[in-house]
């Protein structure tokens, strides 16, 4: 990450909007923005599949594993403003190939920490798990609020965008897919 270049660009943006980047409240803003970008875009330098290296292959478990309500924060690549929400990630392990529960959350976090589209985030999480764990199936549902719709443009705070990606058995088995969706919606 080229933080010095980011700092220069932020100074230029401040000038361009009519601000004085040398005034007291803004003097360190370019540095803060550069440091923030390093953090919120750290997923650009990571492979989400690396988080799925640990398997528990001795287990005979081949039923649904679902983690609901994984919080995430990302940045819309169209306007460079945040979108945030929850991801629900489920898979049907095959041949006892399990991963640690936190590993699924780390995949979501890594993919979210990139300039992103919600649709791509959803598909990338599902594809990563499907490729790495080779389960019978994967289902990922993401619900998010986009600041590009709430603080600008149409200005509709509270509206949610829901995307899903299904792989493997969930693509062809409507009953299995429906069961997972009922678990995701349970308690809402």
Automatic annotation (TrEMBL):
Root EC class: hydrolase
Positions that bind Zn(2+): 76, 79, 148
Keywords associated with the record: GTP-binding, Hydrolase, Metal-binding, Nucleotide-binding, One-carbon metabolism, Zinc
Presence of the UniProt keyword Metal-binding in the record: yes
Protein name per Swiss-Prot or TrEMBL: GTP cyclohydrolase 1
Single GO MF annotation: GTP cyclohydrolase I activity
Domain GTP cyclohydrolase I: from-to ranges: 6-184
UniProt organism field: Alkalibacter saccharofermentans DSM 14828
Pathway: Cofactor biosynthesis; 7,8-dihydroneopterin triphosphate biosynthesis; 7,8-dihydroneopterin triphosphate from GTP: step 1/1
């Amino acid at each position: 990450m080229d933080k010095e270049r980011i700092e220069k660009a932020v100074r230029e943006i401040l000038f361009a909007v009519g601000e004085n980047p040398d005034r007291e409240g803004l003097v360190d803003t370019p540095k803060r923005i550069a440091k923030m970008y390093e953090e919120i875009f750290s997923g650009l330098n990571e492979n989400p599949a690396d988080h799925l290296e640990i398997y528990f292959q001795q287990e005979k478990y081949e039923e649904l594993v679902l983690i609901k309500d994984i919080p995430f924060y990302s940045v819309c690549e169209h306007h460079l403003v945040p979108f945030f929400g929850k991801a629900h990630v489920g898979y049907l392990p095959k041949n006892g190939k399990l991963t640690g529960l936190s590993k699924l959350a780390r995949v979501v976090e890594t993919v979210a920490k990139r300039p992103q589209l919600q649709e791509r985030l959803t598909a990338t999480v599902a594809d990563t798990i499907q490729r790495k764990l080779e389960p019978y199936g994967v289902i990922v549902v993401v619900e998010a609020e986009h600041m590009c719709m709430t603080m600008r443009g149409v200005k509709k705070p509270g509206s949610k965008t829901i995307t899903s990606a299904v792989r493997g058995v969930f693509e062809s088995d409507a009953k299995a897919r429906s069961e997972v969706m009922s678990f995701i919606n349970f308690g809402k």
